[in-house]
Amino acid sequence: MTQRWKVFLIAGLAMAVLAAAIYFPILRRRVMRAAKLQQQSQEQARRELIQPVAVNPADPRVKTSLFWGSDAGDSTLAPVTVELPLSRDPVPRSKQVLNTLLAGPVDAELRTLPPDAVLLGFYLLPDGTAIADFSEALATSIPSGIVSEQLAVDSITRTLEANVPQVQRLKILIHGQEAETLAGHLDLTGAFAVRSRQAQLPANPPLTAPSSEKPTAPTSDKPPASATGKLTPDKGPGKLAQPERKS
Amino acid sequence: MLLHVGNTVRIRLLSLFGALSVVFTGAAMVFSSLAPSQTQQPAPGTPPPANPPAASPQGGMAGSAASPFSGQPQQGGLNIVVLDPAHGGTDPGARGTGGIRESDIVLDFAMQVRRALELQGFQVVQTRQGNEDPSFDDRSATANAQRGAVFVTLHISSTGLPGTVRVYVNSDLPPVTNSNGLIPWDRAQAPFLGLSRKFGDLVQGLLAQRFKGSPDTSQTASVRQLRTTAAPAIAVEISSVTVDDRAQLDRMAPGVADAIARGAAAFKPTYIVPNVPGGLP
Q: Which of A61, B19, B133, B167 is the most buried (most CB within 10 A)?
């Protein structure tokens, strides 16, 4: 009788192992899917929080050039001109322009930036160095490759160049941190030249708001990066002070 | 104890034991196939073509890295090409819908490029032989330790017109201001940019002849791998992992290998090699 009982026990255990072997992978997949969903909804929530970059109806509607992929399909950019009410202040103006760029063109094929990427913060140092802080999706959802990553950065820098004359160079942060590369190829440790031909810039750009003398970083007293505004790549990774993330 | 038990029970127990072991091996197989499979999977996949030629010509990192300092069998001038199959290890690089991994394909491409270069009389050093993932700096260091080398990093893109190839040169770096004659490590590419462009244009020109739709001259991009490399350095990116069948990419390998080898041979006479490894050109 006891032997019989043992047999049943072992058979039961074997069944349990078998059931576990089948069930665990399913469970694992389900947990991963749930985690992904949660991450997406977090991203959504953050976007909703950040999105209202106060569009002031009093702002003049100006022709804005946005650089998305060209429909020639040759991995180049083409400007699309739209009329947008843009602030005169460079920081909100940059946010408005970049958010429109992130929202994407009518033809989703011509996107240069992943649809779930969000601009978390934008700062402008007195020397013309802009710091754009994007959500992690910019790095994780972008197709990996030199051509696609360069296109993404070019679309950001050229759009800023066309619409915000105060921005001289751009440093890209990912979720408040300095990243070594965008998605394995493109170097994010330095700053990208937005306006290489400084001589062409009028001495007193017509759009300069009267308040642009003081640092325009909106939330903190001290600028987020080194006070001199020099962003050389010879600093250790991730050592840039994390800018505060209030919109 | 079993001796006291009847035969039928013993047989039953034995068969149960057998069944259990089958269940366990089954479970183990299920789990191992589910796990990311970085440790075991690539072994049967990639090394068979990679290992034998890599080991035989004694071209491993250690072997050739030591040679410029020791025996010096080579005359001055460009003799070494450092080949960098990008990504590897836990970083698969670009991934296609059909399960194509950039890190695997560039390793296979590197073998063909290596053979083509050796036929042109170059010594080839690879930054990785198998499925490892050296850091950007380690890969650059492999090149920077050589005297008279050029650096080629191989990539597969995830966008772009399939069947085309693009050569990239690092975009302009801030000028080197050190007065002591040393190149800052993180901008090691700066003094070589002109040479890199010359080398890149030669390779891109040859690629454009073979792969229609490719640009005629090399492009510039802020490629992280190139920035720390103190040698004429280019990135070659093949489009793309989105092809349905891997064979489409494999068919491009001989053409890419030939263009790189002939480009390096054409570049060789124009490159006056600095006196010290990693020295100014």
A: B167
Alpha-carbon span B142 to B154, nearest angstrom: 15
In whole angstroms, give the CA distance from residue A8 to residue A146.
61
Q: What is the pLDDT of residues A124-172, one digit of tens each?
A: 999 999 999 999 999 999 999 999 999 999 999 999 999 999 999 999 9
| Contact call for A147 and B159, based on CB within 8 A | yes
Scanning every residue of chain A, which has its alpha carbon at the shortest distance from the alpha carbon of B14?
A7
Alpha helices in chain B (DSSP H): 7-34, 42-45, 47-55, 61-66, 102-119, 136-144, 193-210, 224-227, 246-250, 253-267
pLDDT given for residue A168 in this prediction: 93
Q: Where are the domains of chain B?
A: 1-35, 46-270
Residues A137 and A185 in one domain: yes
* CA–CA separation, B224 and A141 (whole Å): 19
Peptide bond into B240 cis (omega under 30): yes
Closest-CA distance of chain B to residue A147, Å: 7
ipTM value, please give it.
0.71
pTM given for the model: 0.67
Question: Is A20 inside any structural domain?
Answer: yes
Which residues of B are less than 8 Å from A185 in CB distance? 155, 221, 223-225
Q: How far, in Å, CA of B109 to CA of B105, rounded?
A: 6
Question: How confident is the model over B167-176, as pLDDT tens digits?
Answer: 999 988 776 6
Which residue segment(s) compose the domain that A129 sits in? 55-213
Same domain assignment for residues A201 and A139: yes
Architecture of domain B46-270: 3-Layer(aba) Sandwich (3.40)
Mean pLDDT is lowest, of A23-37, A179-193, A215-229, for A215-229
Least CB-CB distance to A10: which of B20, B159, B237? B20
Shortest Cα distance, chain B CAs vs residue A237, angstroms: 12
Which residue on chain B is closest to A28 by alpha carbon? B34
For CA atoms B204, B206, B211, B212, give the dihedral sign: positive
pLDDT along chain B (281 residues), means of 10: 51 60 56 42 36 37 38 62 94 86 93 95 94 93 90 93 93 70 81 93 96 93 93 94 88 95 94 64 61
Looking at the fold, whether A98 and A129 belong to one and the same domain comes out as: yes
How many structural domains does chain A have?
A: 2
Q: Which of A6, A7, A145 sits opposite B157 (nearest CB)?
A: A145
The closest CB to that of B161, out of A22, A73, A192, belongs to A73
Q: Estimate to the nearest angstrom the gap between the alpha carbon of B208 and the chain centroid.
A: 22
Separation in Å, CA B108 to CA B28, B246, B273:
31, 12, 30
Alpha-carbon gap, residue B143 to B235, rounded angstroms: 14
